[in-house]
Write a structure and sequence with these properties.
The complex is a heterodimer of chains A (about 280) and B (about 210). In chain A, about 45% of the residues lie in helices and about 5% in strands. Chain A contains 11 helices and 7 strands. Chain A has a 3-stranded mixed sheet. Chain B is mostly helical and about 210 residues long. The chains are: A mainly alpha (about 280), B mainly alpha (about 210).
Amino acid sequence: MAFRQSFAARALSAAVGLGAALGIGFTTPAAHAEQDASKGIEEYRKMMAADPFSNPGLLAIDAGEALWKKARGTKNVSLETCDLGKGPGVLAGAVAEMPRYFADADKVMDVERRIVWCMENIQGLDTKDIVKKAFSGAGQDNSEMEVLATYVSAQSNGMPLKPQLSHPKEKEAFDIGEALFFTRAGPFDFSCQTCHSVSGTRIRLQELPDLSKPGKEAQLAVATWPAYRVSTNSMKTMQHRMADCYRQMRMPKVGFGSDAVTALVTYLIKQAEGGKVEVPALKR
Amino acid sequence: MKKFIVAAALCALVAPAATAGGVSPETLQKVFASSWKEPNAKNPEGAKPDWASRLVQDNLQKACSQTHNNVDKDLAAEIQAAAKASVKYPEDGKLIGDWKKGEKIAQDGAGLRYNDKVDAPSGGNCYACHQIDKKELAYGTIGPSLAEYGKLRDFKEDAIKAAYEKIYNAHAVVPCSNMPRFGAQGILTIEQIKDVTALLMDKESPVNK
């Protein structure tokens, strides 16, 4: 309880600090104002580095751990024997090497797709509703997928992303992901390349990482999901990032854990190779 | 137009599938089909009248995707000519509408997403990528700044026409442009395009103050 209280107080002071930093944006000259939103987030990050317990996303790790260890489904077992690629129950460093090919499913899977597979096959859980509610809405608590993905991803913190491309299906996923990255479609003719191929550009005030080539921008953008989003006050995952980009691109709703999203994530992880996992990060 | 279609088809065959690893169009189409489920009564999300067509690339989209927007000179000329031919003009010939409405359209980022109302008019979301009225600080930088657009062009008649055409179908000016084909794809109506043209080219527009 003492921890909860001190957490709340710290989160509040950090949030006030962010608000103040953002607020300045409306009173300074234009040249400065346009950068203040990202500066505000930067301030917030610095405060969190000084006091890591002020990151509200940390609660998701605890909630995710509890859910991971809870016996559920027709088999009434926990997810603790779920194999994320390094053996049943081995979490340390597993997410840093995903997506990867899983022989038991004969599919390439990212962490979220794999968790769903484990729920269905290890726990005998009906995942229909869980998948339907995978992305928490405004004002809602973090979803089951969000807290579980945050918990297992955090077990790779500090470890470099290691793309898995040796299996033919992993290579195929990468190739499809690369093709999708450049695929223009829908009424707006957008592809991922439209917004993510030139360093230093923005949509409105949101800075855009260049994901069309390997490097620091891709590392920072990709190795930091799931993240706590300040704009929604909730955890958001990589699956959500892909789905929401496709929504803004005016494409129909892409399937959670679908081949397309897995392929794109495989491509992005390759661009971000070597980036250190940092979960839960803080994003706009 | 026919020539362009032939050229695009040819490009699809000849271009060393700029996609590394040589992902075939068939494979891509399969991924599209399995990853974007058909909306139905139980799953109405994404159910727009043109839903299915959004998963099939037209020739322009194919050509620009396969070349990562770097089309060769000949194909660029074909694309440009086809885009120019696609432009429809207002019946009364007046290309300038209401800049105040144009500013609202430029600010509005809604429309055509699966969570937007089907019949609601779309915005142009111009500020997402362009600086326009300098008073708006929250502008993007994917496209060039359009501040003082009309003033810099002396409000000339041909510049008004060029702006209208650029908004209607940007590929008439820059083949494989990043900019949506607001008129040719039916995103904005002719009236709306006139309003956005006014925002850029009207002497009274704050863009030119």
